[in-house]
Amino acid sequence: MNHSKSYACIGLHNPKSPENVGSVMRAAGCYGANSVFYTGSRYDAAKPYYTDTQKSYEALPLIGVEDLESIIPYGCVPVAVDLIPGAKSLTTYKHPPRAFYIFGPEDGTLGKKITRFCSDTIYIPTEGCMNLAATVNVILYDRLAKGEDFSYHHEQLRLKP
């Protein structure tokens, strides 16, 4: 596999707490994601990273943005992850080689403002909703298990023109 073409980023829509984001950073570091973006006012400073025991934030960009649609990394397919009607089950989902996975907060959904610009909306079939970090871990592991592994070197991020 040509690792330079495999690329995945995480987008967090209004995450709830530093603990959630720290755990997402840890998962992103474990699975080789390229960057993490977040929106919203509930999480400004992102320090200290209580649950990022591997200190992924030292090597993995965590970038606060106003709007996730405007920063979709060049060539990436935006994929909403949300437990909503019409979403595709992760069990049969084929991950795009270059993906921008967008997750909602634990206490809400993404909403049409975000799902309208995503190519797909996927969900994890469970008996209820999972916490944010667990969801990120499952999605990234599924990507790896299905053969769409990540680039373990961080290429320079190119934004959409």
The Rg value, from CA coordinates, equals: 14 Å
Overall mean confidence score, pLDDT: 82
Q: Any idea of the CATH topology? A: Alpha/beta knot
> Strand-and-helix sequence, N→C?
EHEEEEEHEH
Q: Structural class of the secondary structure composition?
A: alpha/beta
- CATH arch. level architecture: 3-Layer(aba) Sandwich
Give the oligomeric state of the chains in this entry, treating copies of one chain as homo and distinct chains as hetero: single chain
Adjacency order of strands in the biggest sheet: 3-2-1-6-4-7-5
Unreliable residue runs: 151-161
Task: Bin the strand percentage.
Answer: 15-25%
Topology, number of strands: 7
Helix content: 10-25%
CATH class placement: Alpha Beta
Distance between the termini: 28 Å
Sum up the overall morphology in one term.
globular
CATH superfamily: SPOUT methyltransferase, trefoil knot domain
Could you say how many structural domains there are in total? 1
In this structure, how is the largest beta sheet organized? 7 strands, parallel
Number of helices: 3
Short description:
This protein is α/β, with parallel strands linked by helices and 161 residues long. The protein has a single domain, classed as 3-Layer(aba) Sandwich (Alpha/beta knot).
Keywords:
single chain, alpha/beta, Alpha/beta knot, seven-stranded parallel sheet, 7 strands, 20% helix, disordered C terminus
